[in-house]
Every structure is written in structure tokens, then in C-alpha cells.
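User: Okay, second chain of the day. Same drill as before: sequence in, C-alpha cells out.
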Amino acid sequence: MTTSDTELPAFPGDRDPRCPFDPAPEYTQWRTTGGLRQVNWQGHTVWAVSRYEDIKVAMTDPRISAEVAAQQGSAAHHGDTMPKIFPRMDDPEHAVLRRMLTKDFTVKRVNALRPEIEKMANAFIDTMVAGGGTADLVQAYALPVPSLVISLLLGVPYSDHAFFQEITGVLMSRTATEEEKQQANGKIFGYLYELVARKEAEPDDALISRLIQEYLPTGQLTRETIAMNSFILLSAGHETTANMIGLGTLALLENPDTLARLRDTDDPRVVSGAVEELLRYLTIVHSLVARVATEDTEIGGTLVRAGEGLIMNLPAANRDPAFLDNPDTLDIDRNTRAHMAFGYGVHQCLGQTLARAELEIALPTLLRRLPNLRLAVPLEQIRFRNDMSIYGVHELPVTWE
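Assistant: Same drill. C-alpha cells below.
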């Protein structure tokens, strides 16, 4: 990736506050004009891939690598100083590490967690109600539910959740400096490295201890690799789902007929369909799926030279009319499971089964427990996360009386 021409459009583009659930308006033009579009992503010139079919091609072409930092000799993503993380690895090494982690995210394992997730959701709503008739839904519910779930799954003390949420906030910020991100990376790596040492001495039945017991003695994993990949799971495990709960609730409040159907149904197929459509419609991961070409490659009619970077424009792809009809409409009755909210191909989100379960529980539980739920401020006063790598709302003041 080369230093960006300042005249190139910034990626990701800001969403219009008048249409906060829609992708940046310029994406429509990028998708409908020929080829890929050069953009400024984190100060580098890269190709934005905005069409659904083009992303499928890019994400399955062996000449397109996830090892962005290694291929470019760049400090991007701190690849020069930090242990490798599975989202930034190519097969076969990626598949080997990913398989070590998969056991804790299977459908069977997640289904066994569902009753516990439901208990957590109800407990946090109980606390909200006990605190009065209004609350910030982000801090009171959207963040705590997935944070507690992923903490228990990994074996990370939930009492430290404020610390890792603060660190994740810096690393996800589009305005934080490189120095601030380096410092944040160092803090979280130090914290998790110390945690790995504690788990080695006093193991439990959670994921980090399992990795230590199964793969540290064999040399397949180092303490450093366990620490950094645990942070990836910890960060993604609360940040993405928390923003989906917050923004998804707001989208439902703005679509009362859809909200009523989700609140009143006992059909798991309707709930599942609603979650899939919200994932597609909102597509909150809008600037993290980066790749680099290892050879000259043509994608969408554009020649991408070896060493040039690409960024997958997932929000644009999920609104592509070539993918489905009337893509700008929220319609929970259609089958949208082929959406790209979790990426595509071998690097598709490892925790997507857990995220789906959390959303299928958290959203209906909230709507049923608080049937009069509504915004406590006008929509115009909501602060949206255009300044972060994962979209959502910074706060969501609600009332239910």
C-alpha cells in the first residue's frame, strides 16, 4: 500500500445521519460504475471492492492474501512486532490455528450456552428496571451481555471488562494516533500474557486454559500466540455483538411493525430470519477486512498489481441489487443468509454462531420484557459511530414507562 493521494475518497465513508442505517451514499456510485475504486484507507491507497460478486472472487482467490503486514513489509496491524493472529494468516497456517479455536464455537457448544445467555440478558434487564425508567441501553445491556459471555467462554475475569473495552475503543477508533494504538496493543498484550501465565499455574475449563493444556506442551502454540489470539476473540466477541444489539434495537424502534413481529412471535424461524436481515441491513463491520495481492490479479475488470491493497466494502455488497431485490428495505421474511456481514470464504467470522445466538436471545428478550421501549431523545440526537471501525451508536438513551 502506498501513501494515499489526499484527493481520494476516505474509506469508510460516513453514513448520512438522516439515513443512519444505510451505507455511505457514495457506495452506490462506486458499485454501479466499472471496476474497483481507489480510496484512502488509514492513510494508504487501496482498492475498495464494493460489489457482492467481486468480493466473493477476491475472498476466494489464492493470490489475494490476508497477510497484509507481512506482504507489504509494513507495520500496519503491528504485524512486525506482535505474534501472528489467525485473521491475518493464509492457509494452510490459518486453517491449523483456526481449528485449534473452533471447538469452543461449534453449534453444539453454543446451543448449550443459550440458557445461560438468556439468564444473563434477563439479569441485566432486571438491573435496568431497578435503576428507574430510563437507561443508556449500550452501557446497561448491549455491552454487558456479550462481554460477560465472551469473558466466561475465554476465562477472562469479567471484572476487568472496563479495561478491555477501553483498549478496544482505542484500537477501533479511526481518529486515534498510531502511537496510541501501539500503546493500547502493548497494554492488552501484557495483560493477556500475564493471564496466560496465571492460567498455566491455575487452569480452569475455559478456552485459554484449553489452549495452554493442549498446544503449549507440544510447541504448536506459544504463550505469545495464545495471548494475542485470545485478544482477537475477546475484542470481536463483545464489540461486534454489542454494536449489533444497540443499532439493531434502534433500527427496530424505527420500524415498529417489524419490532412487533419480533416481540410477539414464538417461532424461532422468524427470530432467526430477523437477525439475519438485521445483520445484512446494518453491516456494522465496515472497514476491517483488508487484503493484499501477491500477484497481478484482475478483479471486477480492474487489474490489481502485486503488492497493492484491497479493502472489502461489506456494507455496499450487502446492499447490492445483484445479491437481492429491494436491498434498501428491511424485510425479515426473506432469506438473506448468504449476506456478508460475517465476511466470506475461509476467513468468515469464527464466532458467528455465538453472535447469532446472542442476538436471537438479546433482542426478543429485551422487546418482550419492555414492551413500551422507546427512544428517550429524538433520533437526531443519537451519536453514531462513524468515527469507529465498527459502526453502531455510542449511546442509546431509552425509556419504557
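Residues 70-80 have pLDDT under 50 and may be disordered.

User: Thanks, on to the next one.
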